[in-house]
Specification:
By secondary structure, the chain is an alpha+beta fold. The chain has ten helices and six strands, in the order ααααααααββαββββα. The chain is globular. One heme C (HEC) binds next to α3, α4, α5 and α10.
Length: about 300
């Protein structure tokens, strides 16, 4: 009996040692266009994000052991693909701004740094103070808004009431390249959340249909039930001379429709975006959804949805 145990253990040990030879390479190529920011901001990113989102990955000894190493290598590959601080300066200034906004959003939503990573690398956790530092930095980059003139504000008001009454000039129901149809009724759904985006001066409202609202009431949002639809509508922001901020020109509406089977290829959600009051479908072909999914993927533990009803 003892012999069998010893033999089995030795066999497992040999397998384990042998496995160590199967290692995808992690290359740290030189960073020619590294992230530029005030030192306190940069230090946070280096400590909490650079292992996966830069060419300056530094692995601890326990990260190097297979099979942990396989997960680490996969995270680094995907992490660098979606955001690489070492290539930061290659992005246009406007893209840098919106990336920063997204970074703050991902951190506040608790999606980044990855939980599987902070469990082991405790010191990578972002504290509340650090999050405030990042927010203050991103806010400081927002353009200073001058009051808009009366003509612009009146035009915006007219457009808003047209939008309420569905008088936008749409000749036929627009259809996105992946077959998702425009749903004019969304403005009568329940508003689930609103947000202002400081990097590009837009204002957004997120609506949910009856199924979404019922799922919130009954706490069935993990996953969201088939038939759930979200609509996110965005306007420019205008500001009058008294500092009142309200909706300006209509920009776009985006939809996410849950259907596990129909949209299995896109993680169970059908995505669509319609731009300008003419509701022009976004995307050359059905692959436009890759862009949507990539940005929503860090929310995969929340069924790819950012907007969360308040948790009790
Ligand atoms: C353990 C590795 C790891 C760490 C550490 C990490 N990330 Fe990520 N990050 C990923 C992976 C992998 C993805 C790709 C999406 C996914 O699979 O969840 C990602 C995606 C993102 C995205 C979405 C990019 C896009 O547009 O597609 C942002 C933004 C982001 N991370 C920001 C951060 C920030 C900021 C930090 C530090 C506070 C951080 N991440 C730390 C692995 C990591
Ligand atoms: C740059 C990242 C990014 C991209 C790309 C993106 N989204 Fe989103 N999306 C978000 C964030 C962040 C929210 C949270 C709400 C907000 O804007 O404050 C969101 C929210 C939504 C919502 C409301 C439901 C929710 O998850 O909260 C819908 C609907 C939506 N997006 C549709 C789309 C569609 C369709 C596309 C592609 C055409 C797309 N998104 C591409 C970042 C992104």
């Amino acid at each position: 009996m003892k012999k069998i145990i010893i033999l089995t253990l030795s066999f497992l040990l040999i397998c384990f040692l042998f496995m160590q030879f199967f290692r995808p390479k992690i290359v740290n190529s030189p960073a020619s266009a590294d992230f530029q920011a005030p030192p306190n901001v940069k230090a946070i990113m280096i400590r909490a994000c650079y292992d996966c989102h830069s060419n300056a990955t530094s692995l601890r000894w326990y990260d190097q052991i297979v099979p942990v190493y396989w997960q680490v290598a996969a995270d680094i590959k995907h992490g660098r693909e979606s955001l690489n601080f070492s290539d930061w300066q290659k992005m246009a200034p406007a893209d840098q701004k919106s990336k920063l906004w997204e970074i703050v959003y991902q951190i506040s939503a608790g999606a980044m740094p990855l939980g599987s990573y902070t469990e082991v690398h405790q010191n990578a956790k972002i504290t509340r103070d650090e999050l405030s530092t990042l927010k203050a930095y991103v806010n400081s980059m927002a353009a200073v808004a001058l009051p808009d003139d009366t003509a612009k504000i009146n035009a915006a008001d007219r457009q808003y009431s047209q939008w309420r009454k569905e008088q936008f000039l749409i000749k036929q129901v627009p259809i996105a390249p992946n077959g998702v149809r425009y749903m004019p009724d969304y403005k009568n759904w329940q508003a689930i959340s609103t947000s202002a985006r400081f990097d590009n001066g837009t204002m957004r409202v997120i609506f949910g249909n009856n199924i979404a609202a019922a799922a919130v009431r009954t706490h069935h949002i993990q996953p969201w039930p088939d038939g759930t639809v979200f609509a996110k509508v965005a306007w420019d922001e205008v500001e009058d001379k008294d500092g009142n901020v309200k909706t300006g020109a209509f920009k776009q509406v985006e939809f996410m429709i849950k259907d596990k089977e129909k949209y299995a290829a896109t993680e169970g959600w059908g995505y669509a975006r319609f731009k300008t009051p003419k509701m022009i479908p976004y995307g050359k072909n059905a692959l436009f959804t890759t862009e949507c999914i990539n940005c929503h993927r860090p929310q995969k533990n929340e069924d790819f949805v950012f907007t969360q009803p308040i948790k009790h």
